[in-house]
Design goal:
2 copies of one chain form a homodimer. With 565 residues, the first copy, chain A, is an alpha+beta fold. Chain A contains 13 helices and 30 strands. In chain A, strand 27, helix 8 and strand 28 form a beta-alpha-beta unit. At the A-B interface, strand 3, helix 1, helix 10, helix 11 and strand 30 of A face strand 3, helix 1, helix 10, helix 11 and strand 30 of B.
């Protein structure tokens, strides 16, 4: 069972199962061979089956989808129920590998599906509004508004609001059976937290709790919701939300153990960087912070995932933010500048996603990576100027998208003395052939094109290893060529570096991008603590499970190139 | 059991077993991660154990070798027996991955091993001469001589001979128990065939049979040998060789079925190419060849393996030379110019093997690849000038080293209208990071080095795809990144191309570089026939198992770029 979704009236059930398909032994040619480039294992052969259970209990197979339909294979069960049909998204991939999101509708009466929308553009999952059209949040920053686009293309604005809608973190959106009210997931833009937006013909009314309201479910009339309430310092608890009054009532703690811990102090904060881009985030303070004393600091980043949720793995991965603060680090959780606030950023993001006109490579570089790295550096400078942190003892960590910014930050300046980069390698030329369109959008060509090569030399971390000085740890879930190239280039340039590969459950599988094996998670966190303690503080802990690494690290520290001393 | 070798007196047995080592689940760091770059599967964990059985039947483990010791893991059991010890080669790999061949000696009396020689240079397996020194064939071409180098470094020449010694195809070398005579494997340079060289204090005496004498074994006194006799048109038969008289006597046919077939006509021939390099080879004639009629032709190449052996897979891989000739092609089996004949070629070969001074990249290109491709082209021109073949219907095939020359030939000129390139990809920039020293030796840098990039653009087949016009089939044993890059580049340039991946025995294994699965061998040969028939002759065979490919090929032929028409 991959995912399921009950109809609002509780009478129908949509569900998806994954089917293992056996790997037939045969000669493969052309595309079937080409698609295996750079893959360590052949792509999973699973297909997905979509079923609908009718009120009479009869189950109908409504579609079988190939593995190329990543949208279905990884579905969370988001569908739209209308009175007559269930609408579900699938992904079609053409021969050039271009993915297209198609919305299908299965008619209960006709017993068949038809495509009702198809777009290559990435769109937030659409929600039906009280006027029968599609709801969306539109516009940039202060001009942001909630709109509903009717089937006739007519646009109705519900007004300007400092939040966005359509995030998956809490729930998609639900439409009341009487059609008069829609509830949607909303996210505040400044101190990013999740709430419930109630939209009816009169307008939009937000409901906020303490911290965020996440993972909400509703009773069929949409009168009452059950959610988790959680925040940076608020362990998750189960709450009910009365939609009419907006009253939030705590039902039970999810983990009473966590409630016993006196929370750390966490302060929302925003910064504006040298490019004029504003970013949000949090300062996580050491428990016994003494004003006037300078602390070592670590920046943790992952896209826009720094928000009011509790110790979110999506955000902090295997960087044990709370433990680091307990050990005396000021931890900065910093988001990237949001493309919801800035037209330039949005244009660059769209160009990268092949949905817009490409910008010149130097501009792509600036808007998609250099400004991110600059945000972190400028936040560090600001807190150093305020006497809070010690500029000489600052580290940086991030995985996935965050690893790109870590690798760029470390090879563009010397602000960070140590880094932990998690399971990333995008921007390395070795990956260009595996996703040529995305690389061409950024670098204006492939790396063996003499006209494009200078753009790679200006950004690809492994080609800039000789600019780096800080110690760089890479923790990876599979032996990615790009991560290995960066490691080798760093070592060749004399930069202290380590690459750690965490094992899968057996010889035939890998750890996942977001680690899921508890022993790996524990080890990765301990390794990060040992790494930062050693390289930022010069501290050794003979009790650390990684104590036997100190000799290696000593040797790298002793051999630091002169340019870095 | 990997390999074994009896002592000449038949009293001792040396043997090697392979041990499977289980793959421990653990976090790997640094070199253990880095070595997995570009590997689809983790390196085999097998270790090898070397044993010696004494005259009393007692078996002693004399060494256990790691998998990095490729020499032992792939041993054919070549050792040297002296009265007191058995000498065996192992390979040591240092942290930089540099391999060093070490000769070990296990003393029967002391019951332990010591290293007696160590060299990074590639040396032919050493044979002990009648004077107690090491035998070798030395010098170039006409100045080639058989020499013995004593332990004191003194050099004794046995004179000049038009053959080389030390090939593994027949046997290594054996030293008579009385020390007065050594028998070695010899290979003639002109019409390359194997024989036995008998060396005593008086000199060297060659023994030749019909075709080649291969896979010889000797009685303990070295008075009689049992060998296979085989040649291009001579199916293997078992023969005895009287060493004193040189008389060769047939004992039995290995495959009486083959003896029933009237052999094709195969003519040894040599050519001198535009660079002045001489190459040897064979013309395999269509069975009913008619003088004055022009025939389509296919060049098959693989290093120096075109010699007097029967349908040798090392040479003709999955190119069914005999069947192609039966179908009306003139097949040319052509060797590369031998570095045993030319000092320039030897210098380039040594530079590539990291054993000599590097030459300028344009010189490396010329001596290691362009001259090879030119040999094939010039041979084609010569036979076309003689009215034998039709210049417009010429194909080329080669695997491994041969695939390099096929890919270079196809992207440097338009002589060949169709090609089949087997399981190769060296020279592609994608492989450079996996063997940087060898690439730097050739290209004077890695591909992202702007100074080196022009050298890649001048030679790497995928970067020259837009110069190609002939149809290129790649048959591969695993989805190599380099082969896939070449395929994609060809298709992008509109060049007709196909890549075919042949499966391993199961999902957890690949086909081997020299195919070993009979169904794959059969299919690959049929595919080559279909490919050449289609692209050279425009012939379709509805009975071919690949007949369903014609539609694809038609589409590619129809879309041939204008520059190729």
């Amino acid at each position: 069972m991959r995912a399921y979704n009950w109809s609002p009236d509780g009478r129908r059930l949509f569900f998806i199962t994954l089917d293992s398909a056996s790997d037939e032994r045969q000669i493969l040619i052309d595309e079937k061979v080409s698609e295996q480039r750079g893959l360590r294992r052949r792509l999973g052969q699973a297909t997905a089956s979509l079923y609908l259970r009718a009120p009479d209990g009869k189950v109908t197979l409504i579609a079988r989808r190939p593995r190329s339909d990543r949208s279905t294979i990884a579905s969370k069960g988001d569908v739209i129920w209308t009175g007559e049909e269930v609408q579900y998204p699938v992904m079609e991939v053409d021969r050039e590998g271009i993915e297209r999101r198609v919305t299908m509708a299965w008619s209960f009466v006709e017993g068949r599906a038809r495509a009702i929308a198809s777009t290559r553009d990435y769109v937030y999952w659409q929600m039906k509004g009280p006027r029968g059209g599609q709801l969306a949040s539109d516009g940039l920053g202060d001009t942001r508004e909630i709109v509903e686009i009717g089937e006739d293309g007519r646009r109705h604005s519900y007004g300007r609001f400092p939040f966005s809608i359509g995030h998956g973190a809490a729930f998609g959106g639900l439409w009341a059976p009487d059609g008069n009210q829609t509830v949607v997931n909303i996210r505040a833009l400044d101190d990013p937290r999740f709430g419930i937006g109630v939209i009816d013909r009169r307008g939009v009314r937000p409901i906020w709790g303490d911290g965020s309201l996440t993972k909400c479910d509703f009773n069929p009339t949409l009168a009452i919701a059950a959610c988790l309430a959680e925040g940076q310092t608020l362990p998750p608890s189960l709450v009910t939300v009365d939609i009419a009054s907006g009253r939030v009532r705590t039902v039970a703690s999810v983990s009473p153990e966590h409630d016993k811990i006196a929370p750390l102090q966490v302060t929302p904060r925003s910064w504006t960087n040298r490019y004029g881009h504003k970013v949000t985030g949090y300062v996580v303070w050491p428990r016994d912070y003494v004003k006037g004393q300078r602390y070592p600091a670590i920046v943790v980043n992952h896209g826009n995932d720094a928000d009011q949720r509790f110790a979110l793995q999506d955000n902090q991965w295997e960087y044990p933010v709370q433990t680091l603060a307990e050990r005396g680090y000021v931890v900065l959780l910093i988001n990237e500048a949001s493309s919801r606030l800035n037209a330039d950023l949005r244009a660059a993001e769209q160009a990268w996603g092949l949905q817009g006109t490409t910008l010149p490579p130097e501009r792509m570089r600036e808007l998609l990576w250099l400004t991110g790295a600059a945000s972190f550096e400028d936040a560090v400078f600001e807190l150093a100027d305020e006497g809070i942190i010690d500029r000489e003892r600052v580290g940086i960590a991030g995985y996935s998208r965050g690893s790109q910014l870590v690798n760029v930050a470390m090879t563009q300046s010397h602000v960070f003395r140590a880094a932990s980069s998690g399971d990333g390698g995008f921007l390395e030329p070795a990956m260009a052939a595996d996703m040529p369109d995305y690389y061409v959008a950024i670098f204006a060509g492939l790396p063996y094109d003499p006209k494009a090569l200078p753009n790679y030399l200006a950004l690809s971390p492994s080609l800039r290893a000789s600019k780096a000085c800080g110690a760089i740890l890479q923790q990876i879930a599979a032996p990615h060529v790009a991560s290995i190239d960066f490691y080798r280039a760093l070592r060749k340039a004399g930069v202290p570096a380590q690459i750690s590969l965490f094992p899968g459950e057996g010889a035939a599988s890998d750890e996942t991008h977001v680690f899921h094996i508890p022993s790996n998670r524990m080890a990765a966190m301990e390794e990060n603590i040992a790494w930062f303690d050693y390289w930022l503080l010069g501290k050794r802990d003979r009790e650390s499970p990684f104590a036997e690494r100190y000799a290696r690290w000593d040797a790298m520290a002793a051999a630091l190139p002169n340019r870095c001393r």
